[in-house]
Specification:
single chain; alpha+beta; 7-stranded antiparallel β-sheet; 6-stranded antiparallel β-sheet; globular
Length: 237
């Protein structure tokens, strides 16, 4: 099953995805995970031995909900979902650096990138599973965790909108220099995913490329429960 997930990710139309990332800064993916796989991820939520910490979002004023960070070693299904995304996104990450006239800095291989994180004492995994009940939401934020961060992350929705929950759109807000901010509200199918910037994205202006800071969150869940899976590629201090 896990190898099949890798094949599905590798078989995505990455040329089109990279075009969307360049044009609009994010890419919405069709369902990659099956319903059974989504159900298996949601069942992992109660297996406390898999996690290094649990965060009550209300306590820290991050929003209203709960999320859990996986610990190393990752479950095989999580590892096999994370690995095939990295090489393609590293291509876009290095291309974006080129737009901003900066040298490439992201290796082709995820393990080589994690070695860089380790050099900066970032060794704790940041992949997480999130749960929102009715009234839950996630404030706009960025997941940086240290001096080293990968410029993309991927979030999956694990249950079915308008059946298991309502509301709960994925939110992206771009802070445009010397202009007002732009918002995106994105809905995902069960097993579908959203690729979006961790920190900023290059945007083409009259004098070349400039940076738009991007923050993300989740709008209020108006009924039911919403589960999400966050694939973050850099480790935390």
């Amino acid at each position: 099953m896990t190898q099949d997930i890798q094949t599905r990710v590798k078989s995505l139309n990455w040329e089109a995805i990279q075009g969307e990332l360049d044009e609009q800064g994010f890419a919405k993916l069709p369902p990659i995970l099956t319903k059974d796989e989504c159900d298996s991820f949601m069942k992992l939520y109660s297996e406390e031995e898999l996690y290094r910490t649990t965060i009550n979002m209300t306590r820290y004023r991050f929003g209203n909900g709960e999320y859990k960070y996986f610990s190393y070693p990752l479950p095989e299904i999580i590892q096999n979902l994370r690995e095939p995304f990295y090489p393609e996104l590293a291509k876009t990450a290095n291309r974006w650096l080129g737009y901003l006239k900066k040298p490439e800095q992201f290796p082709d291989n995820l393990q080589d990138f994690l070695k860089t994180c380790e050099e900066y004492k970032q060794t704790r995994p940041t992949l997480l599973i999130l749960k929102y009940k009715k009234g839950g939401f996630n404030c706009l934020h960025q997941d940086l965790y240290g001096d080293v961060f990968f410029p993309f992350q991927v979030v999956f929705v694990l249950n079915q909108r308008d059946k298991d929950y309502t509301g709960g759109e994925s939110l992206l807000v771009e802070q445009i220099p010397r202009a007002q901010s732009r918002g995106h509200a994105i809905t995902l199918e069960q097993g579908g995913a959203l690729i979006f910037p961790t920190n900023h994205r290059p945007a083409l202006g009259k004098k070349g490329y400039y940076k738009n800071t991007v923050r993300h969150g989740v709008s209020t869940v108006t009924s039911g429960e919403r589960y999400g899976l966050g694939i973050i590629f850099h480790d935390s201090k």
